[in-house]
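<goal> How does this chain fold?
<body> The protein record starts here
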Amino acid sequence: LPGSDAVHKVSIIPRGVGALGDTIQGPTEGRYLMTRAELERRMMVLLGGRAAEEIIYGHFSTGAADDLQRVSQIARAIVTRYGMDDGLGHVVYEKEQSNFLGQAAPQFDKGYSEATAREIDLAVRAIVQDAYRRTLALLRAREALLRESAAELLERETLGEAELERIRNVAAKGATPTPLAA
């Protein structure tokens, strides 16, 4: 996605408990602030695997569990920490808190009503659903490229920067990639 962090490596080699592969992504320049559009693009990248499952298999697996958790955290932060939701306004509803070990501390007093909590939940869900809808539309529009890239990933198990750059260039031209020689 234009304006999102570049993907440097994709692997389907399992790494650790519960990780059946990795997508290594990193910013091309130092970044201290992010816009809502940038946060939404980050969510779309994270939702790519889930959307690909729906397109390719027609059902979901547990493979996107960590990505879904991260997407939910980003959407909740958009609403509760960054004041970026039109309906709830420029208000901070939840502060990032940590205990003396640097871990997230539980919040016992949210400081807002149950009605506001419901509005927050609905806003978070709407943001995630919109990001997923946009991700699904993007991948469906490039389904041939998705299938070719997935086949190459299955064959090679890891795609590095050169292979990903070739795929990005093909995508920019709207064509289907020609697999690299093994």
Notes: The radius of gyration is 19 Å. The longest helix spans residues 114-141.
